[in-house]
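Box 3.1 A note on notation
Throughout this textbook, protein chains are presented in two layers. The first layer is the amino acid sequence; the second is a token string describing backbone geometry. Keep the layers aligned when reading.
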Amino acid sequence: MSFWHRLRQRRALPIAAGVVVAGLGTRLLYRDAFAEAPDAIDPPIQSPRKPIYDDPVRRPSGKAASKPSKESQGAPSDSQNPMTNDPTPTDRLAVQVRQARLFMHNISSQAETSFNAFMTRAFNLEDNFTTIVRSLAPPADANEPILPGLAYIFVAALAGTIVSRNRGIILRASVPLTFGIAAGYAVLPSTMQNVEGLMQDWEGRYSPELRQQHIRARERVRSFLVTGVEHSKMALSQGEEAVGEARKSVEDWVRKGR
């Protein structure tokens, strides 16, 4: 009796074990397997590449929107994810294009500034030149034709070179200049006075000491000329008086001879 009872128990144990294993397999087949818990689901890893067309943001609805889980609150956001903060090739290209545009803008601005400064200096030089030429021109009532006067000055300087051709280097350099200046004061007095005033202005602006020396030399020459003119007038008057006395004496002698 006991033998049959033990035999039935031994046959029932494998059958019960098979039933238990089948039930567990069926339950695991229709249920998801989680490492820790069903709620601890990590968010999907986003790709660092930026898509061309962004998908619309899906807002969670229902209880998921009102009650976020602890795992979702503790998980890092997209802004804190280092993979999403890396610049894309498009962003790097935009930065390079911006730098290139700024560089070209600076270069063009500097070139434009330099060109404007150069043109300003050129216009100032032109204005100064025209002002100098106008200041040298004689007045309208002076009646000094420039072209014949310059021709006469050139001929006088050429005559000075001919006169001093057999002299020393100092005379060959100074005599033509002296003849030309003298001819200029004789033919174009107003123009030469304007040139003299311009030279005095330049000397006073760039070399005041040289101007003072020229003024002193001019005063000496002027005093010498004035003295020479006065002496020549005195000599002329004395000569006229001597000629008058000689004439009277001759006339008296002629009268007495008759």
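Residues 208-257 form the longest helix (50 residues). Confidence is low (pLDDT under 50) at residues 33-41, 62-79.
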